[in-house]
Design brief:
CATH superfamily of chain B: Ferritin, core subunit, four-helix bundle
Keywords (chain B): Cytoplasm, Iron, Iron storage, Metal-binding, Oxidoreductase
Pfam family, one (chain B): Ferritin
Shape of chain B: elongated
CATH class of chain B: Mainly Alpha
Largest sheet of chain B: none
Number of domains of chain A: 1
Organism (chain B): Pedobacter fastidiosus
Number of strands of chain B: 0
Radius of gyration of chain A: 16 Å
CATH architecture of chain B: Up-down Bundle
Low-confidence stretches of chain A: none
Number of strands of chain A: 6
Low-confidence stretches of chain B: none
Oligomer: heterodimer
InterPro entries (chain B): Ferritin (IPR001519), Ferritin-like (IPR012347), Ferritin-like_diiron (IPR009040), Ferritin-like_SF (IPR009078), Ferritin_DPS_dom (IPR008331), Ferritin_prok (IPR041719)
Largest interface: A-B, 14 and 11 residues
Radius of gyration of chain B: 19 Å
Strand content of chain B: under 5%
Structural class of chain A: alpha+beta
Distance between the termini of chain B: 53 Å
Number of helices of chain A: 3
Family (chain B): Belongs to the ferritin family. Prokaryotic subfamily.
Number of helices of chain B: 6
Structural class of chain B: mainly alpha
């Protein structure tokens, strides 16, 4: 999906690093990953799946393996998007996703304290 | 900002992973008991074969109960791959020793999940786990009692035949 189609002002920046950002749309109940030149939409389940796929990539083994290029295809069944990432980009995407999920936990705690536990 | 992950799912990712691991362990136990049932049947221990077949069914029920819970809470329940099931046993006693060991491993695993639930204050899953913790009392008791028959009756002479006859009669009562 092209970035131009979406009103960026309606999105909430969940987490960013030097390589990209992850946004949340409260209106559409979905997430957008701006990374590696792509602006891709994900739902909760597919974002969790992407995190698992990225975390399971052994970057060290990728770098030490002299028989293949230091690139990895990142996708999963049912995912519309494919990333061809270098080892450094994988590290960056891993960091981006971990940071995002940490923000989700923080948001959960904040929601608990400010809304759910004060009725 | 909406808490989309929480809206979608009641349990955390860590708890979901642990429950999926437990689903796999229950599936493994079910297959192991079926394998024990097969070995007992082939070696003429009919009552024990029935006992282990029933145990296998129970483990399958446990697996499905966990599976349903993960799905009901909005999680991703994973149908497990089961491999490496032991099919040959050195003797009648070893079957029961392995059965007890398997139950101890399952109890430990549930304790581990319960500990994580306490840490996360996930009392909903904790309440769900209580049924399993109680069930493990019975499972371990039965497995231990069965093994004790080897000491009480002894394996000499018609001992194994007697043990086989008594295995199916082991029951657990809280009172």
């Amino acid at each position: 999906m092209e970035k131009a189609c979406i009103d960026i002002n309606e999105l909430i920046n969940v987490f960013s690093n030097t390589q990209g950002s992850i946004y949340q749309s409260d209106k559409l109940n979905c997430f957008y990953i701006d990374f590696g030149g792509k602006f891709a939409r994900y739902n909760c389940l597919s974002l969790q799946k992407l995190k698992k796929v990225v975390e399971n990539i052994d970057v060290e083994a990728l770098l030490l393996n002299t028989t293949k290029a230091d690139f990895e295809l990142v996708t999963f069944n049912g995912c519309e998007h494919i990333y061809l990432l270098s080892a450094l980009e994988i590290v960056a995407l891993k960091e981006l996703l971990q940071g995002t999920f940490t923000m989700f936990k923080l948001n959960y705690m904040v929601n608990d304290c400010l809304n759910r536990l004060v009725y | 900002m909406k808490d989309l992950m929480r809206i979608k799912c009641l349990i955390s990712q860590d708890i979901e992973t642990l429950l999926n691991q437990q689903i796999k362990k229950e599936a493994h136990s079910s297959s192991l008991y079926l394998s024990m049932s097969s070995w007992c049947d082939q070696n003429g221990y009919d009552f024990s074969a029935d006992y282990f077949a029933k145990q296998s069914e129970e483990e399958r029920v446990h697996q499905l109960k966990l599976f349903k819970y993960v799905l009901d809470m909005g999680g991703n329940a994973i149908s497990p791959e089961v491999s490496g099931i032991k099919t040959d046993f050195a003797g009648f006693r070893e079957v029961f020793e392995d059965a007890l060991e398997a139950e101890i491993a399952i109890t430990q695993s549930f304790k581990n999940i319960a500990s994580k639930c306490h840490k996360e204050q996930d009392f909903v899953t904790m309440e769900f786990l209580n049924w399993f913790l109680k069930e493990q009392r019975e499972e371990e008791y039965k497995a231990r009692r069965a093994l004790e028959l080897f000491e009480v009756i002894g394996e000499e002479g018609t001992g194994r035949w007697e043990i086989d006859k008594h295995v199916n009669k082991i029951t657990y009562s809280e009172q």
